[in-house]
Specification:
9-stranded mixed sheet
Length: about 425
């Protein structure tokens, strides 16, 4: 590929494009199943590859977008679990061709930003190909922009401060933007006597005997202090924006996923921070980055956390790691999950309310697809409609930074953020 028309330092761009296989044969496009995808679409994919390696980027861009449009329709028809993996592979390949073409057409910063978004869409909708080439490519692109911007003086978000839009969010930045104070109000609800127990870094044997085996919830202290996210790379809004502000993620819009008005939208983390975290419009709906595999998408953040040692007590090495990031007031309605869970608090505080699986008859689960979710609004229960709910026994407490709460499988839990909050959940079997 011809990189000479890419300024922003040719050697840097050569390094970025170095993650792309040097020739078409190393793409292994022959592995795509034509019986699933059709010969016509596979021909278009092969054509994109030829155009990319011939440096015909404008034509490659157009055809790859056509392939993405076709694949998008397939991915959004029916249930996600029923979509053949080949369609996701095609989406990843087409995203790769499009991203390379975008950054190769012109050296404008916007083109690189567009390429970053294209990679993220491939990571969100596609399946890993070529040793997760999209993740490696987007990491290099982000690093390239950060180095390119290093010579420009940009104000950062000091702790508890923010600006309306960061330089990462927009190619045009004006230093005259006024900085305003981020309010960090903390409301602590009155707790009753039935509080979730706290214990300081129990041994594996003690945890197994007293909590895991008996399915007893507990808040564990002093087991996260060594995380870089709580020490050497202490997470803050400023840090998250710096590391991941350019990246596109799915945001839930609405206070609860059980509401009819609930929806999702794609936006950069920087825009999410500006619009929903530090400067939310009081008239707008709450935005929440919820249950997202952020650390698979952005390994730079994954380096700052650690899988709890207690997960080794499971029957599998697989641990599902998700991020939960949002403003004060985000809510996870009363629901249950099938796996063990360590909800680990990195920033802010959350109110946790737990009901054991034995309380299920009093919690009125939905029928059908939401059978793991209660119909009851825990904070304002309709006891005329759900009279047995008043008999349900629970425990509660406030989860603070540096603490993780163990939630056993099938244990019903309700969560509300009391401030700007970032949590990491670890689900394991």
């Amino acid at each position: 590929m011809d990189c000479k028309n890419l300024s922003m330092s040719d050697h840097v761009l050569d390094k970025v494009l170095g993650v792309v296989p040097p020739c078409k044969s190393q793409l292994h496009l022959e592995s795509l199943d034509t019986t699933i995808l059709g010969e016509a679409l596979c021909h278009q994919v092969r054509r994109c590859a030829e155009l990319m390696y011939c440096s015909c980027f404008e034509t490659c861009l157009n055809i790859s977008q056509h392939v993405l449009d076709i694949t998008w329709e397939k991915l959004n028809t029916g249930y996600w679990k029923d979509v053949d993996i080949n369609w996701r592979y095609v989406y990843s390949y087409a995203s790769l061709f499009k991203a390379v073409s975008q950054m190769s057409l012109e050296s404008k910063r916007k083109n690189v930003l567009d390429a970053i978004k294209t990679c993220d869409m491939g990571l969100l909708m596609g399946a890993p190909v070529l040793d997760n080439v999209l993740r490696r490519l987007v990491s290099h692109l982000t690093c390239m922009l950060q180095k390119n911007d290093a010579g420009h003086q940009t104000p950062t978000l000091k702790q508890e401060e923010t600006i309306g839009k960061s330089c990462e969010a927009s190619p045009e930045f004006h230093p005259q933007i006024k900085i305003k104070r981020l309010k960090t109000e903390h409301f602590s609800p009155k707790l009753h006597a039935n509080q979730i127990d706290r214990v300081s870094c129990p041994s594996l044997e003690f945890f197994q005997k007293n909590y895991k085996t008996s399915h007893q919830a507990v808040i564990i202290q002093d087991a996260m202090d060594f995380w870089p996210a709580l020490s050497s790379h202490k997470w803050s809004i400023d840090y998250i924006r710096k590391i991941a502000g350019l990246r596109t993620v799915p945001i839930e819009i609405g206070s609860k996923y059980t509401e009819e008005s609930w929806s999702q939208k794609l936006m950069t983390i920087s825009d999410f921070i500006d619009d929903y975290v530090v400067s939310p419009d009081p008239e707008s709906k709450i935005g929440y980055l919820a249950q997202h595999q952020l650390f698979d998408q952005i390994p730079e953040l994954q380096k700052d956390i650690c899988i709890p040692t207690y997960c080794c007590l499971g029957n599998s090495d697989d641990v599902d790691i998700n991020a939960w990031f949002g403003p004060k007031g985000t809510v996870s309605p009363l629901h249950q999950d099938p796996k063990h869970n360590f909800l680990s608090q990195v920033m802010g505080e959350k109110y946790i309310k737990l009901y054991s699986v034995e309380m299920t008859p009093y919690l009125y689960p939905h029928e059908g697809i939401l059978s793991n979710t209660s119909q009851v609004d825990v904070e304002n229960p309709d006891l005329d409609k759900f009279p047995l709910f008043s008999q349900a026994l629970y425990t509660e407490n406030i989860l603070r930074p540096g603490e993780m709460v163990y939630i056993p499988p099938k244990c019903w839990h309700f969560v509300r953020s009391l401030s700007v909050s970032l949590s990491v959940s670890f689900w394991w079997e």
